[in-house]
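Morning F.,

Quick status update on the modeling queue. The single chain you submitted on Monday has been processed. Sequence for confirmation:
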Amino acid sequence: MSKQNKILLILFLSCTIYSQIEKQVRDDNPGLFKNQRVYHSSPTPLFKERSHNLDFITSIPKDSILSSTLFFKTNTMEHYQEFQLNGTQGLYRFIYDPKKLPGTHIQYYFIITTHTGAYGAPINDLGELIPINKLLVNPVEYFKQQARLNK
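Structure tokens below.
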């Protein structure tokens, strides 16, 4: 293959990949970040015996929100507990305290209801609500492992 053909092939492949990415970003898929109304990034790692903030952000105006609820449980609970949250400038925060809600794993999801519908996080590519599952890790073991990996 000549040098000119290689360059044309590289340009063609670059354009093809770019157009596929562009299509995905413009897609109406509810799992894509731009189409969600509630945003959450799970803290990583979550350490045992330490408090953690579980934050959710929304672009929905506060006067349009009827309720904002965190559904939360640990592996020691049979059912989810509901926690009503008050937001400040679109930020809703739940402080997980392992002394009050002990366990080795946590699961949670967030729902906002408005006059026109309900919005939740996190959702998958089909727009279905999927609870976050997190293991609470021992901080000493975590940092030992990180040190071994960084050698």
